[in-house]
Amino acid sequence: MNAGTPSAPLDVMRLRADFPILAEKVHGRDLVFLDSAASAQKPRAVIAAMATAMERQYANVHRGLHWMSERTTEAYEGARDAVARLLNAPDRHEIIFTRNSTEAINLVAHSFGRGVLRPGQAVVISEMEHHANIVPWQMLRDAHGIELRIAPITDAGEIDMAALEALLADRKVGLVAITHMSNVLGSYTPAARLARLAHAFGAKILLDGSQAIVHRRVDVQVLDADFYVFTGHKLYGPTGIGVLWARRELLERMPPFLGGGDMISSVSFARSTWAAVPHKFEAGTPAILEAIGLAAAIAYVEAIGYEAIAAHEAALTEHALALLAKIPGLCVFGAAQDRGGVVSFTLESAHPHDVATLLDRQGIAVRAGHHCAEPLMHRLGIESTARASFALYTTQGEVDALAEGILKVREFFT
């Protein structure tokens, strides 16, 4: 489908018709789905692409000589081309398929962390990282003797650039691993500036794009990143498929993450040799159908245009912040100058879980908890928040419903 040009406003109601689930009722009410940062809903184009592959051509990839295997291999490798195009990667062989962003970061922690970084070097992360970009580095620290350094954030929810530079000053840092957009605060980090700073001190940079790639165009060459990861299920695609992009020269230096079929060149009982990248990092039967679904999701988003999506979501976020600011006892966290469609909040005298439960009874789906960012919660001085997150199918009326729903929750607790 072609929902418009990059300069045209979104026809949101037309887009919503592409998502069957949005017509569902919850507790007898129209569904207001404001939890897309956790996992986005899927358009018919994605559902159809995966169903067609299962119904008409399914076979394993890379190994078969029959027509179904060849056709499925073509579709699977076409997904790699779609991701390379999406990221403006210089080389399609730099695209590694993983299960999700978490696995992609673990791959880098294992293969780059143990294979390239030396004990005594350091990795820098920030205070607002998702657990997926914390725990792998703690594991690397404990197993390989890497120092883990934490870059603070400001009260507005932005990277403290002066403090980050101080952490890099001794040139012991081998890698900076930082989110491109916070899943709690909505803050975009200045990715290109971070890359310049890391490189100036001899470090590589990994950007966790799990949230950012949903909302704005990502060009890894413009960002000058070394590693970029994202996951399919937030980008309107299926679960079970994620992406690691990395510079080819780094992938060539890194040892494999997993061993088994398809990642080898030759095997004997004495030794094995590895396949060329990207297959060196894709052991076993891959997520074939999921990759095909991801390619369909990318085509869907590209047809709409990131500029139109970004403008729509910016207007929604501005509207939401204005409405929520009027609700007594409600506190919104994060005030970054550059922020996306994620709004985390607390309501006086109401636990976030209670807020989410009472909103659900009104047909409004939000997330509540620490959002896999416990250290950030501690930095904010809280245990959890409720979180509303927006997508290309979110309407202003749904934002209005959220504000009205919160007012009803507030009445319940006062």
Draw up the topology in text.
Layout: H1 12-16, E1 25-26, E2 29-30, E3 32-33, H2 44-56, H3 67-87, E4 95-98, H4 101-115, E5 122-126, H5 135-144, E6 147-151, H6 161-168, E7 173-179, H7 191-200, E8 204-208, H8 212-215, H9 220-223, E9 227-231, E10 242-246, H10 248-253, E11 264-267, E12 272-274, H11 288-304, H12 306-324, E13 330-333, E14 342-347, H13 352-360, E15 364-365, E16 367-369, H14 374-380, E17 385-389, H15 396-413
Parallel strand pairs: 3-15, 5-6, 5-7, 7-8, 8-9
Antiparallel strand pairs: 1-2, 4-10, 9-10, 11-12, 13-14, 14-17, 16-17
What report would you give on this structure?
Helix 3 packs across helix 11 (288-304). By secondary structure, this protein is an alpha/beta fold. It has helices spanning 12-16, 44-56, 67-87, 101-115, 135-144, 161-168, 191-200, 212-215, 220-223, 248-253, 288-304, 306-324, 352-360, 374-380, 396-413, and strands spanning 25-26, 29-30, 32-33, 95-98, 122-126, 147-151, 173-179, 204-208, 227-231, 242-246, 264-267, 272-274, 330-333, 342-347, 364-365, 367-369, 385-389. The strands form five sheets. The protein has a seven-stranded mixed sheet, sandwiched between helices. Strands 13-14-17-16 form a four-stranded antiparallel sheet, covered by helices on one side. Mean pLDDT is 95; it is low at 1-6. It starts with 11 loop residues before the first helix and ends with a helix. It has two domains: 12-30 and 305-409, Alpha-Beta Complex (Aspartate Aminotransferase, domain 1); 48-302, Type I PLP-dependent aspartate aminotransferase-like (Major domain) (Aspartate Aminotransferase, domain 2, 3-Layer(aba) Sandwich), CATH 3.40.640. The protein is globular.
